[in-house]
Amino acid sequence: MGVGDLLTSFKGFFSRAFWLGAFLPVAIVAAVHAAIADAVVPVDVGAWVVTAVSSEPGTTVVAIAAILFLAYALAPITTIAGAILDGSVMPKRLHESLRRARFADWNAGAEAINAARIDYAQIQTLRGRLIERLQNARDVGAAKLQPDLAAIEAAETAVADLDAAVAQLIEGNEPDGGLAARLHRAAATVQVALEACSADEADDWSQRLDRTQTGFDAATLRIESEYRHRRDAAQSRAFLDDPVDWQPTRFGDARQLCDRFCRDSYGVPFSFLWPRVLLAMNGAGEADEDKGLPRTVVDGAAQVEFAVLLLALAVTVPAFWLPYIVIANKSLAAFVLIGVLAPAVLAALYELAVQSEVRFANSVNSAVDRYRLDVFPLLKLKPPPTRSAERALWRKLHNARVADSGVELVYHYPGATP
Question: pTM of whole model > 0.85?
Answer without folding.
Answer: no
